[in-house]
Write a structure and sequence with these properties.
279 residues; Rossmann fold; two-stranded parallel sheet; 10 helices; globular
């Protein structure tokens, strides 16, 4: 059956060292979930584990690993299943970002976006969802995509390749897993105040350019907190909601893009032209 409460559930969260993953780990623990956590950042992951336990939450297991490494994910999954059996909730939160126009993006940008943001979640799904199906207890899968998985945002071609892909995977699994009582949530955040804001690589652009700093500042002013996103994720799981928005602007933008394609196309082109002035 679909998850109605996280209390007593075994909940796997990737990207738990910082940002949305960190906030979601704290929120899920507060709901009574037993956490299984991972992140590539070993130090940050340990701090999250310490904070969860300091607040009275339960972390059953944690390990630092790179989700783009299939063998590492498989070994991790084998140990989790040996210790705990199948998990009840899988949350794919880990992700990275790089922006740029096609003439400035390098192969490494395209590859890293797909390896981490798309193949990473797929590696987790491959290893954790089939055991969930076989257990027959239902469950829930959360995939954190992005507004860039819904809309043609300027300079987001490589990032969108991964996030649109994850959206496609989620949409198919939404229907595929229903017969097993497993819900699927696709989370589509817009601007979020995470460390990625300051570290995102923008190919072909000087991050010290005053115009870029101004644009980043405007982005941060509109950004929601990771805690806000986490609360939306938890609510989405409990209500078995497929599309999980974290801010009204993205909900409106996606509705508008579907209902009014010509003006959407016009505005997207104008936005792209405006961004090109930074080059």
């Amino acid at each position: 059956m679909a998850i109605k409460t996280l209390n007593g559930s075994k909940c796997l969260i990737t990207g738990a060292a910082s940002g949305i993953g960190h906030a979601t780990a704290l929120a899920a623990a507060a709901e009574g979930a037993e956490l299984i956590l991972t992140d590539i950042n070993e130090v940050g992951l340990a701090l999250t584990v310490e904070e969860v336990r300091g607040r009275g939450g339960t972390v059953g297991f944690s390990r630092a690993l790179d989700v783009s490494d299939y063998d590492a994910v498989s070994a991790f999954a084998a140990e989790v299943h040996e210790r705990f059996g199948s998990v009840d909730v899988v949350m794919n939160v880990a992700g990275i970002s790089a922006w740029g126009t096609v003439e400035n993006l390098e192969h490494r940008h395209w590859k890293s976006m797909v390896d981490v943001n798309l193949m990473g979640p797929i590696h987790i799904i491959e290893n954790f969802v089939p055991p969930m199906v076989r257990a027959g207890h239902g469950g829930h899968l959360v995939n954190v995509s992005s507004a860039a998985g819904l809309l043609a945002l300027p300079w987001h071609a490589a990032y969108s390749a991964s996030k649109f892909g994850l959206r496609g995977v989620s949409e198919v699994l939404r229907f595929d897993l229903k017969r097993h009582g497993i819900g699927v949530s696709l989370v589509v955040p817009g601007a979020v105040k995470t460390p990625l804001v300051e570290t995102v690589e923008i190919a072909g652009v000087d991050r010290e350019d005053p115009r870029i700093k101004k644009a980043v500042h405007l982005f941060e002013r509109r950004a929601v907190t990771p805690e806000k996103v986490a609360s939306c994720i938890i609510a989405g799981v409990k209500k078995n909601r497929y599309m999980v928005y974290t801010s009204p602007d993205i909900r409106f933008g996606f509705w508008w893009a579907r209902k009014f394609a010509p003006p959407y196309n016009f505005v997207m082109q104008k936005a792209n032209d405006q961004f090109s002035k930074f080059l």
